[in-house]
Amino acid sequence: MEKFDVAVIGGGPGGYVCAIRAAQLGNKTVIVEKDKFGGTCLNRGCIPTKALLHSAEVFEEMLHATELGISAENIAFDYKKIAERKEKVVSRLRNGVQGLLRAHKVTIKNGKATLTGKTTFKVGDEEIEASKIILATGSFPANVPIKGADKPGVMNSDGVLALDKCPESVVIIGGGVIGIEFATLFNTLGKKVTVVEMLPNIMNGMDLDICNSMKAILQKRGIDIYTNAKVVEIKDGLEVVFEYEGKQLSAMGEICVMAVGRRPDTKDIGLEELGINMNRGFVQVDEYLRTNIPNIYAIGDITGKIQLAHVASAQGLVAAHNATGENKVMHYNIVPACIYTNPEIASVGLTEAQARDKGLDIKIGTFNVNGNGRSMVMQVSDGFAKIITDAKTGEILGGHIMGPRATDMIAEIAVAMKAEATIEELADTIHPHPTVSEIIMEAAHDVEGLCCHKA
Ligand code: NAI
Predict the structure, then answer these.
(1) Cα 246 to Cα 266: distance, rounded to the nearest angstrom
(2) What is the pLDDT confidence band of residue 282, given thresholds at 50, 70 and 90?
(3) Which of 76, 238, 297, 417 has CB 3.0 to 4.6 Å from 319, enough for a Cys bridge?
(4) How much distance in Å is there from the Cα of 17 to the middle of ligand 1?
């Protein structure tokens, strides 16, 4: 039986990063993947959706090219080619992941791993032993158990990413991150989009100012959004029937996308048999990412913490160190979250509502994108930065940005929070001009009412 120090089961952004770090720390490491390296993020999530969205964004910019003094005629897109380019990006990155694993001398096994003991597992007929096992098996899209959910044309995010033809109309069940990104994609490509969300707000969990502004922007662009709506049935057509404000309404779509969250992929890998503590399918871990069996760790979507690729990777690093004898604690208070709408959205730390719910004495600074030169150059006027601080200490509690490059800029606030910089230090940091990042500095000045570029 082949023996390893560390075995990582699952090759997504949690697992492969974990395996590389484990190897860097001197462990003889093996990684097992039943499908494709890169997991959901690379093959069916973050990367392919952003590749599609980038094509849509360029298409939209070209439609407005004349406003920039550029003439372009017959602007059109070929969705098959858009989808092919997306696949090229994905396969290049996937090869990169395998190359990195090999470069770090991680042994790669392809196949489904099933635990057979606390330190043993099977991949096909091969039995493997490892002193430490790290579970990183990820998640799959959830479904709404309603009548008609099995009709042709009803699909989840995996189905949308496999399309090579652009649907003329789309009904999206679920106004979370995935739902809103797909709504942005098809709307930007000029297609009819309806979003049906059961909660009072789209993008639940984001700061309310962002939810409300983005809802208004999406509606202005022609997307029909129904919140507080309960989906009843999907009829042929496809006709999605839902209850809204006491009435029964319906929306027609060539396809219907279910974007209602993701379930952990923890079945049939021997977890129950080993007695690993689970809760609704999620593996229970302590702050060191250990399960109740001390040499078995879990990271990523299966832990039911925050289902984001960068959280999985961060957990992977912590687990790799702990599997090598350290006691690193996994923290979740400074986790940036990004939504690739147009304009982009990004957030870190507490929302205003969360800070108020905690009874904190807060001060808030904001600055609108329409007062920012670089944004004007880029023809964007929607959006703002909002920073929430502790009124007494100046601690930065949260930052929320809607605007161009928001997803890149949020890292600045995350670093400031991690370094425990005060809002004064953030405001005193000279920001380059002209850049969109100035909206963060202006919002920081605004906390004390000292923003020079605000009337
Ligand atoms: P989500 O949990 O963000 O949103 C699902 C939405 O569906 C919720 O608003 C929920 O209220 C709604 N819903 C559930 N059942 C419903 C029903 N029967 N009728 C109408 N609405 C219903 O989950 P989502 O968007 O599927 O994303 C899954 C995970 O992937 C999330 O954790 C998300 O953070 C992550 N993700 C992150 C991305 C990013 O960082 N840019 C992109 C895509 C996904």
Answers:
(1) 39
(2) very high
(3) 297
(4) 25
- Alpha carbons within 13 A on the beta-carbon side of 359: 0
Angle (CA) 45-177-397 rounded to 5° is: 115
pTM confidence score: 0.96
> Tokens 């959280």 appear where?
311
Reported as a pLDDT band with limits 50, 70 and 90, residue 330 is very high
Average pLDDT over every residue of 340-362:
98
92 CB neighbour count, 10 Å cutoff: 10
The Cα-based distances of 224 to 72, 183, 195, 340 in angstroms read 30, 10, 6, 19
- Residue 361: predicted pLDDT: 98
With H, G, I as helix, E, B as strand and everything else as coil, classify residue 379: coil
pLDDT tens digits, one per residue of 43-54: 999 999 999 999
Residue 279 pLDDT level (bands cut at 50, 70, 90): very high
The residue written with tokens 């957030």 in the block is: 347
- On whether the CB atoms of residues 194 and 224 are closer than 8 A, the answer is yes
- Across the range 266-281, mean pLDDT stands at 95
Report the sign of the C-alpha dihedral through residues 14, 266, 31, 5, in that order.
Answer: positive
Q: Is 211 in the pocket of ligand 1 (CB under 6 A)?
A: no
- CA-nearest residue, atom 32 of ligand 1: 307
- What is the spatial distance between Cα 298 and Cα 288, in angstroms, rounded to a whole number? 10
Beta strand pairing status for 126-135 and 296-298? parallel
Specify whether the CB–CB gap between 394 and 388 falls below 8 A. Answer: no
pLDDT in tens, 92-103: 999 999 999 999
The pLDDT of 141-160, averaged and rounded, is 96
What is the C-alpha separation between 207 and 402, in angstroms, rounded? 11
Q: Tell me what the mean pLDDT of segment 209-228 comes to.
A: 98
Most informative mutation of 47, 178, 185 for ligand 1 (most atoms within 8 A of CB):
178
Of 156, 177, 242, 282, best ligand 1 pocket probe by most atoms within 8 Å of the beta carbon: 177
**Per-residue confidence band for 376, with pLDDT thresholds at 50, 70 and 90:** very high
Query: At residue 195, what are phi and psi to the nearest 5 degrees?
Result: -115, 130
Strand residue runs (E) in 62-159: 107-110, 113-115, 120-123, 126-135, 139-141, 154-155
Query: Would you say the CB of residue 178 lies under 6 angstroms from ligand 1?
Result: yes
User: Three-state SS for 18?
Assistant: helix
